Amino acid sequence: EDEQIVAEIMRRRFFPDFIAYKTWEGFHFAGHEIRITEATDCYGAVVWPSALVLCYFLETNSKQCNLVDKNVIEIGAGTGLVSIVASLLGAFVTATDLPELLGNLQYNVLQNTKQKCKHQPCVKELSWGIDLEKNFPRSSCHFDYILAADVVYHHPFLDELLLTFDHLCKNDTVILWAMKFRLENEDRFVDRFQTLFDLEMIFNFPSLNIALYKAMRKHRMKA
């Protein structure tokens, strides 16, 4: 079953038949052809397999996870593929990443959602752990879903990432998080994550070493 679903996910990706002035990859999700412009000089401007897994889940579980008119934020949006798919599925989407990635992110989001979505997504800077209350005040920012794909890897900002999850997540917020396991850092982060959130694995692809998790804040009913 793992190999069959992985093959189906990977079939959603296609490449141009001709050389264009901008390098791009194509994807089929949510009934649309999505063209993503990438940059090979930084991790954040490349589409990683975890993003495809999350997009596939959002599309194929639209009844279980209905995004229509829901308020959604993606952290570490990178090229924007997940945010684009969530927008095409009817959500109000805020796609976020570091300032140096926003230009390419904005380009991809605009090119693939303009006049195609119920709600036009927005792109916003989010540096994990920095100015969270200023830029995303708890009193006015409420997200139904937090989306994240491959935000945990060998980088020095895992504390800030956990702080960001904690700040953005209300008692009824659902986190959908796809992660590729590479080193012990991932296992340690999952352990720390579970001190704040109830975590459930909803997809597991051993052939890709990727898991998809659903999480909600602990003790939410008491709160």
From TrEMBL:
Q: Does the keyword Transferase apply?
A: yes
The answer on whether this UniProt entry bears the keyword Transferase reads: yes
Classification via Gene3D superfamilies = Vaccinia Virus protein VP39
**One term of GO molecular function:** methyltransferase activity
According to its UniProt entry, the protein's GO biological process terms are:
methylation
Please name the Pfam families in this protein's record: Methyltransf_16 (PF10294)
The entry's keywords: Methyltransferase, S-adenosyl-L-methionine, Transferase
Name assigned to this protein: MT21E methyltransferase
Native source species: Dicaeum eximium
Q: What is the lineage of its organism?
A: Eukaryota, Metazoa, Chordata, Craniata, Vertebrata
Gene symbol?
A: Mettl21e
